Amino acid sequence: MLVSQILKDKGDMVFTASPSDTVGSVAALLHSRRVGAMILVNEDGGVAGIVSERDIVTVVAREGSGGLLKPVSICMTADVVFADPKETVDQLLERMTDRRIRHLPVLRDGRLAGIVSIGDLVKHKISEVTAEADGLRAYISAG
Predict the structure, then answer these.
(1) Which end of the chain, N or C, is surrounded by fewer C-beta atoms within 10 Å?
(2) pTM to 2 decimals?
(3) 48: Cβ–Cβ under 8 A, 6 or more apart, which residues?
(4) What tens-digit pLDDT sequence spans the chain (143 residues)?
(5) What does the pLDDT read at residue 61?
(6) Cα 135 from Cα 29, distance rounded (Å)
(7) How far apart are CA 110 and CA 90, in angstroms?
(8) Assign residue 109 a region: left if phi > 0, alpha if psi is -120 to 50, beta otherwise?
(9) pLDDT of residue 6
(10) What is the CA radius of gyration of the chain?
(11) Do β-strands 111-117 and 103-108 pair in parallel, antiparallel, or remain unpaired?
């Protein structure tokens, strides 16, 4: 299964914020949109970074509630790891496991085309394995 198929199934909506937004406002967006990570875009629309719930928890643990008033750029990951729509689920699962990350923005022709989470990939992997098992059961039953 390719990443492009996952985006086709789940949609290409990507929630974004600005690196100058406060940690607290981005935390509120993550909560209201029920997502675990947000892409941070600069003024020209390019990807400046990514921030996850874990990044925000780290700021609060380190700096207390005052950290919520600081720009989210203090805790974003600027060296973003991307996915390509032509990559497979297995390729992304390996990359995410190796780098210990849970979200990958997808770039198509240099532009943000969506985002996939480890949950999205696992869901599709389970569907794939289940379909394969069902096929094998049907083949064995048919004799």
Answers:
(1) C
(2) 0.85
(3) 19, 40, 41, 42, 73, 76, 78
(4) 899 999 999 888 899 999 999 999 999 999 999 999 999 999 988 999 999 999 999 999 999 999 999 999 999 999 999 999 999 999 999 999 999 999 999 999 988 999 999 999 999 889 888 888 888 888 888 86
(5) 97
(6) 42
(7) 22
(8) left
(9) 93
(10) 18
(11) antiparallel
Number of domains in the chain: 1
- Residues 40, 76: contact at Cβ < 8 Å? yes
**Dihedrals φ, ψ of 44, to 5°?**
-90, 5
CATH value at residue 14:
3.10.580.10
Torsion 94-98-99-102 (CA) sign: positive
The residue range of the domain holding 130 is: 3-142
Residue 78 region, left (φ>0) first, then alpha (ψ -120 to 50), else beta? alpha
Cα distance between residue 90 and residue 106, in whole Å: 15
